[in-house]
Design brief:
single chain; alpha/beta; 4-stranded parallel β-sheet; two-stranded antiparallel ribbon; 5 helices; 40% helix; globular
Length: 140
């Protein structure tokens, strides 16, 4: 769970490699802990050859990034605007389904400069033990 990865500098090499061997568009999903981090990572992805950037502002598994941003219209607008200011490629915003009214956050994203929306990220749900196929009622 969460967003484990080796970081944008490693992925930048992979993006560049992918662009040399295939003609398909490369869309890179990015996250950060601040609007500045989102902008930095998005710019590195585009500089490496990404054709579009998806802003993952809706991951419910990582604290202080993701859903805290995607559920807060002010933070969401700030992230989209900051990224829009540093890249010229299309920006997709991955919306959180865990809001009262997804239309509100969708509108905020579009008004801030999103070119497209990804609907939706992880729905909060019950955890299931994969061995017993029963609900996990309490985690220790």
């Amino acid at each position: 769970m969460g967003l484990p990865n080796p970081g944008i500098d490693v992925y930048a090499k992979e993006i560049t490699f992918c662009k040399t061997i295939m003609r398909a568009p490369v869309i890179v999903s990015v996250f950060g802990y601040s609007s500045d981090e989102y902008a930095t990572v998005a710019k590195k992805a585009v500089d490496a050859g990404a054709d579009a950037v998806e802003l993952n502002v809706s991951c419910p598994h990582v604290q202080f990034t993701g859903s805290e941003i995607g559920q807060n219209p002010k933070l969401l607008a700030e992230v989209v605007e900051k990224v829009k200011a540093v890249i010229s490629k299309p920006i997709l915003v991955k919306l959180s389904p865990n809001v009262t009214n997804i239309a509100v956050t969708a509108r905020v994203a579009v008004e801030a400069g999103a070119d497209a929306l990804t609907a939706v990220n992880t729905l909060k749900a019950m955890a299931i033990d994969s061995e017993t196929m029963r609900p996990i009622l309490k985690q220790s």
